[in-house]
From TrEMBL:
Name this polypeptide is given: Octaprenyl diphosphate synthase
Listed GO MF terms: all-trans-octaprenyl-diphosphate synthase activity; metal ion binding
Native organism: Halopseudomonas xinjiangensis
Known function: Supplies octaprenyl diphosphate, the precursor for the side chain of the isoprenoid quinones ubiquinone and menaquinone.
Pfam families listed in its UniProt record: polyprenyl_synt
Documented EC number(s): 2.5.1.90
Length: 322
């Protein structure tokens, strides 16, 4: 994954963050380390810590505090994954068994709590109240987003505005926190700080929109998860919402029934419906708009290889197949 071009500008920083993560996973309880190492070691794109590193460098940071901030962000993200998989009763993530599938729900939830608390310990060590405030708020918003999404499971009346509120809270918020706190760490000016905050939000929205497209058009082996996972859980994502709103009465009825029932019995006709109704194209266009906005926000930064990499990341968000 780290062979993608936008990683190369911070290769050494990335390795330092990985080493710091492994050191901070230390616990006197062996099972904590075992589960923590398992889920951290599962890999993934590590995009949120990457955003921290690139944004901090783009703003002129030259010390190692950005490594701590990147590790904090990764711990917060990993904690949400552990909790998500329990809530969603998922058994596969990134092509491997989830922690809850291997060790059970209770250890997964508790190790997620450990990662949250370790992240906040590391925030205290950074000693910047503005960063602590931003990350505390982000953690709160993410939790609210999770609960809002849970309350809309199997609710076929969910509208586009509510869907966007869910993804801004649940997914985009940590991207936003990554770029925002990097600017705070760099003591960037107000204009750059706000632009980077908006960059993270737009990037996160673009990523989630493309994820929701790939849930119906992607390849399971490339994505490391099953196609149609969201439908199986009864989650009303934008391709489904659009199909109910703009598709034929038959398509709308099919999707509405599938959301209310959950499961994958109708996955083939639903994949056809979201394609022929224009729902996937609509969602992809919205992702493109967010990617363009993210790139626009970078114009407040001085030219550098780091700014270029942030732009490449925004373009990758909508061109990827995994």
């Amino acid at each position: 994954m780290t062979t993608l071009p936008f990683y190369s500008a911070v290769t050494d920083d990335f390795e330092a963050v990985n080493q710091l993560i492994m050191r901070q996973l230390h616990s006197r309880v062996p099972l904590v380390e075992k589960i923590g190492n398992y889920i951290i070691g599962a890999g993934g794109k590590r995009l949120r810590p990457l955003v921290v590193l690139l944004a901090a460098r783009a703003c002129g940071v030259h010390d190692t505090q950005q490594h701590s901030l990147a590790a904090i962000i990764e711990f917060l993200h990993t904690a949400t994954l552990l909790h998500d998989d329990v809530v969603d009763t998922s058994d596969m993530r990134r092509g491997r068994s989830t922690a809850n599938a291997l060790w059970g729900n209770a250890p997964s939830v508790l190790v997620g709590d450990f990662l949250y608390s370790r992240a906040f310990e590391m925030m205290v060590e950074l000693g910047d109240m503005r960063i602590m405030r931003a990350l505390a708020n982000a953690t709160n918003v993410i939790a609210e987003g999770e609960v809002l999404q849970l309350s809309k499971v199997r609710d076929a009346n969910t509208d586009e505005a509510t869907y966007l509120e869910v993804i801004r809270s649940k997914t985009a918020m940590l991207f936003e926190a990554s770029s925002h706190t990097a600017a705070l760490l760099a003591e960037a000016g107000d204009e750059q700080t706000e632009a980077l905050r908006r960059y993270g939000d737009a990037l996160g929205v673009a990523f989630q929109l493309v994820d929701d497209v790939l849930d119906y058009s992607g390849d399971a082996s490339a994505m490391g998860k099953n196609v149609g996972d969201d439908l199986a859980e009864g989650k009303p994502t934008l391709p489904l919402i659009y199909t109910m709103r703009e598709g034929t009465p038959e398509q709308a009825k099919l999707v509405r029934h599938a959301i209310q029932k959950g499961g994958l019995e109708d996955i083939a006709p639903i994949r056809e419906a979201v394609e022929t109704s224009g729902a996937l194209a609509y969602t992809q266009r919205m992702a493109q708009q967010q990617s363009d906005l993210a790139v626009e926000m970078l114009q407040t930064l001085p030219p550098s290889v780091f700014r270029d990499s942030l732009e490449q990341l925004a373009r990758f968000a909508i061109a990827r197949q995994f």
